Amino acid sequence: MWNYDPEYVYMFPVAYKNREIFFENITKVPAHIRGAFLLDEEKKDEIEFSVYSPSESLVLLNTTSSFIFDFNATVPGSYKIVFDNRYSNTDMKVTFTMNTGQNEILKKEDLSATEEKQKVLLDFMSGYSLQLKMRGNAHHLRYKSKTVSF
User: Fold this and answer.
1) Are 26 and 83 contacting, i.e. CB atoms less than 8 angstroms apart?
2) Of 39, 61, 80, 85, which has the fewest Cβ atoms less than 10 A away?
3) In a 3-state reduction of DSSP, which class is residue 11?
């Protein structure tokens, strides 16, 4: 998948005759949803992969051992992603990745304001530290001058 940056990668088991369900909350629409999954088995077992919209209508359905998907979400809400192990008589290990474009990725330009604020804070802390040292030295000198030796 060209120009693909995964938001997350999951590796999880799906037991025999069981399902694993993920929910993805889409708040900004239209959203370009892309991802992939593959089974971690050398056998050619298959798993049913399906995606349902917030209104429970089927968006994607595929039964395979690996799949790259790409679709546009036009309705905001919670999308349901289902991995159903009904076709194999063994446990499956799935690697799943997806990107919804909902999380903003900071760029270097976005960090410049933060870096400036950090520099101001660091300068303040350095000045404060210097003032404390100077007060401490002055106090120490006054204490030594008041001390009477016998």
Assistant:
1) no
2) 61
3) strand
Give the whole-angstrom CA distance, residue 85 versus residue 38.
13
User: What is the 3-state composition of the chain as percent helix, strand, coil, each rounded to the nearest 5?
Assistant: 25, 40, 35
What is the separation of C-alpha 117 from the centre of its chain, rounded to a whole number of angstroms?
A: 25
> Which residue type, as a one-letter code, is found at position 44?
K
Please give the model's pTM, rounded to 2 decimal places. 0.66
| Rounded Cα distance, 10 and 12, in Å | 6
Q: Are the beta carbons of 68 and 25 closer than 8 angstroms?
A: no
> What is the percent of the chain with per-residue pLDDT over 90, rounded to a whole number?
50
* Cα gap 22→139, rounded to integer Å: 64
User: Coil, strand, or helix at residue 99?
Assistant: strand
Using CA atoms, how far apart are residues 139 and 43, in angstroms rounded to an integer? 78
Sheet containing strand 31-39, edge to edge, reads 8-14, 92-99, 31-39, 66-73
Q: Which structure tokens are listed for 35?
A: 């991802």
Main-chain phi, psi angles of 20, to 5 degrees: -115, 130
Q: 10 Å Cβ neighbour count for 92?
A: 23
User: Is a pLDDT exceeding 60 seen at residue 126?
Assistant: yes
